[in-house]
Design brief:
Elements lengths: L1 E4 L4 H11 L5 E4 L17 E4 L7 H9 L4 E4 L9 H7 L3 E2 L6 H16 L2 H9 L17 E5 L3 H12 L3 E5 L5 H5 L3 E2 L2 H7 L2 E4 L13 H6 L4 E5 L8 H10 L2 E6 L21 H6 L5 E3 L8 H21 L9
Parallel strand pairs: 1-2, 1-3, 3-4, 4-5, 6-7, 6-9, 7-8, 9-10, 10-11, 11-12
The structure holds nicotinamide-adenine-dinucleotide.
The site of nicotinamide-adenine-dinucleotide has 30 residues, from helix 4 and helix 6.
């Protein structure tokens, strides 16, 4: 099938070209993000392949449909950037990669936690300057700490396994209780209780109406002073204004973010030669106890390989059998 592949990076091309040798699709790589203007670049492609910072609102989907697009193939697990009810009304199926490497994201969350706690980011710079002192580099043992995990799906469970391996006590909150987690000793508690008891909190739930700004002024009030918060899930789970205030007050002691509320305008691109206009992000970057990475938690060889394989198989199944595999439904 002819595929319009938006938001292409060289690493996408490398993995998709390799996997496409066994699928034989005609992929038209487009570097631009998908939006109302770039949706008009469609010529005779029947499939649009999009990533998380592409915009798939009702207007864009209608434009794509009118240009002859028959399938939206997301090369991501997350789908909060797609207006699913508009897609349904238009009869435009949306498929995704439901799982590629939960290990990749969970390991990155653990990496942020270790780096922040043991101040490896600061030690790295300090030693390079010839400063071998240890002042302000003291961390704490993870062993014996209480870790609160919000969302015990695929990634949350991998993260729990890592934390259990470190000898942590794990509390969890999810709308569905997982028995396997309970068998590992994980204790499901209310959100309020998780906030109150955990010295480390890691977010692994999806972004939806119930979870938007889950971390806000009120929930931060319930947390322990100096709490560590790790977010590798979605930026809008955290109210950025509230977390900046909590960092300034010392309520939040360590903050690791792989995602950020307003990341669409910046993440995945090189702005090293520009003035960053986002004052909230700029403020976050000034804290010594905050690490921000640019939505890279998924970015491992294994994950990229699986993303290309599943995306192209979704498209091949649609082309050959009319099958809509891994469909995202409302
Ligand atoms: P999953 O569907 O396997 O698990 C999500 C869990 O969250 C489920 O157990 C679900 O019941 C739970 N949940 C749903 N609503 C909830 C609520 N209101 N409160 C608490 N829990 C709730 O998904 P996953 O593969 O583990 O991915 C989790 C999230 O990680 C995704 O939604 C995505 O936003 C994010 N993600 C980030 C990256 C990255 O590179 N940073 C990559 C992939 C996924």
């Amino acid at each position: 099938m002819k595929i319009a592949f938006y938001n292409t990076k060289p690493y996408d091309q490398r993995y998709f070209n390799q996997v496409n040798l066994t699928h034989g699709h005609d992929i038209h790589y487009i570097s631009a993000h998908l939006n109302l203007e770039t949706a008009k670049l469609i010529q005779d492609e029947e499939v649009v392949c999009a990533f998380i910072n592409d915009k798939l609102d009702a207007d864009v989907l209608t434009t794509l449909k009118n240009q002859g697009v028959r399938l939206i193939a997301l090369r991501s697990a997350g789908f909060n950037h797609v207006d699913l009810s508009a897609a349904k009304t238009l009869g435009l199926p949306v498929v995704r990669v439901p799982t590629y490497s939960p290990y990749a994201v969970a390991e990155h969350a653990a990496g942020l936690l270790l780096c922040l706690n043991r101040k490896i980011h600061r030690a790295f710079n300090r030693v390079r300057e010839g400063d071998f002192s240890l002042h302000n580099l003291m961390g704490f043992d993870l062993h014996g700490k209480t870790v609160g995990v919000i969302g015990t799906g695929k990634i949350g469970q991998c993260f729990i396994n890592i934390m259990v391996g470190f000898g942590c006590r794990v509390l969890a909150y999810d709308v569905c209780v997982d028995e396997e987690c309970q068998e590992k000793g994980v204790e499901y508690v209310s959100l309020e209780s998780l906030f109150a008891q955990s010295s480390i909190i890691s977010l692994h739930c999806p972004l939806n109406d119930a979870t938007q700004h889950l971390i806000n002024h009120e929930s931060l009030e319930l947390m322990q002073d100096g709490v560590t918060i790790i977010n590798t899930s979605r930026g809008k789970l955290i109210d950025t204004k509230a977390i900046i205030k909590a960092l300034k007050q010392g309520k939040v002691g360590l903050l690791g973010l792989d995602v950020y509320e307003e990341e669409e305008a910046l993440f995945f691109e090189d702005f090293s030669d520009s003035v960053i206009q986002d004052d909230q992000l700029s403020r976050l970057l000034t804290f010594p106890n905050v690490i921000v990475t640019s939505h890279q938690a998924f970015f491992t060889e294994e994950a990229m390989q699986k993303i290309a394989q599943v995306t192209l198989t979704n498209i091949t199944d649609f082309a050959q059998q009319g099958l809509i595999r891994n469909e995202v439904t409302l």
